Amino acid sequence: MAQDEKTTPGPDLTKGITSGKLAEGQMLTGLAGEDEVLLVRQNGAVRAVGAHCTHYQGPLKEGLVVGD
Q1: What would you measure as the largest C-alpha separation in the chain, in angstroms?
Q2: Nearest Cα to 38, choosing from 65, 7, 5, 66?
Q3: Which end of the chain is more exposed for a tag (fewer CB within 10 A), N or C?
Q4: Residues 13/31, Cβ–Cβ less than 8 Å
Q5: Which of 30, 63, 25 is nearest to 45 (CA)?
Q6: Could you read off the pLDDT of 18-56 as tens digits, one per residue?
Q7: For 20, which DSSP code?
Q8: Please, are residues 27 and 61 in contact by the beta-carbon 8 Å criterion?
Q9: Is 51 exposed, middle or buried (0-12, 13-18, 19+ CB in 10 A)?
């Protein structure tokens, strides 16, 4: 019998995270309400986007951060 692989989406981002939890260039997935979100720290700023590709729903955390 095949089992579905389920991963924990990460912390509840509505509660916030400590700044040390997201290093420069690092990605972190978590939940904002019911939405899975990807955080990235780049050039000192933290940016948030939906955690999955809008075309194929692939996990963006498996990709690369390139450019701004």
Answers
A1: 46
A2: 65
A3: N
A4: yes
A5: 25
A6: 888 899 989 999 999 999 999 999 888 999 999 999 999
A7: G
A8: yes
A9: buried
* Confidence check: pLDDT of 7 > 70: no
Calculate the alpha carbon distances from 34 to 10, 16, 65 in Å: 12, 15, 24
Spatial separation of the C-alpha atoms in residues 24 and 32, rounded to whole Å: 21
The token pair that represents 68 in the structure block: 């701004």
Residues in the chain: 68
Look at the block and give the residue holding tokens 């990460």: 10
Query: Do residues 39 and 32 lie in contact, with contact meaning Cβ atoms separated by under 8 Å?
Result: no
Residue holding tokens 């692939």? 58
What pTM, to 2 d.p., does this model score?
0.78
